Amino acid sequence: MKGKSIKKQLFLISLLTFVISIWGGWSLFDHLAYPTKVKIAQFPLAIGQEIKSDYGDVLIVPGSGCNPGRGTEERLNLASALYQIKKRKLILSEGTCFPHERKRFVHRMIHEWKIDSSDIIWDTLSMSTVDNFTNSLLIADSLGLSEAIICTSPFHQLRCWVVCCKIWNGGFKVAKMSPEMYEMEKEEVYVLKRGKTIRQEYLKIAHHLLFLW
Q1: Which end of the chain has less neighbouring CB within 10 Å, N or C?
Q2: Which residue has the higher pLDDT, 10 or 42?
Q3: Of 91, 178, 182, whose CA–CA distance to 140 is shortest?
Q4: For the whole model, what pTM was predicted?
Q5: Helices and strands per DSSP (H, E), number in the chain
């Protein structure tokens, strides 16, 4: 599905997500427990798929946290699992880290996630998801890489797909993350703000669909 047809469908999705975000909020699910509401709200965002072992030549781990946290860790759990099956270049798009944080985290990537240092590329400029894929495309093009596998958290998958539909030149797929890879649920601060995070995702998706396209 290409051209006008996909743009039309994406525009309709944008209107739907905008209405859900602004008008619906949590009020539609007030009678449900908080964890249940989170699962329901996140379900449409988690669009990852199983990746064949021979697909892709670059893994992209998007992010923008100053000190890589649980979100980055669970994304690297996914990237590492795919990397162990087939070695690929890995772009960690975590642009706002300080140099000493990058050095420490690269050490963890090598020893904990078992990724060869020669395959790690750190995008040091990204401040947003759009930046993540704009800069990753520049890096990939310079290295002759074209098939990307996006390794991100379930709530972030649909937005990455939307952005890549506009920005990425080659083929790409969003990888499915299995529950045993989750890290954000291990810290209360992430769990408590998950509702706000998901609402923001819907708003950002609507914004990308309305203005990025």
Answers
A1: N
A2: 42
A3: 91
A4: 0.85
A5: 8, 5
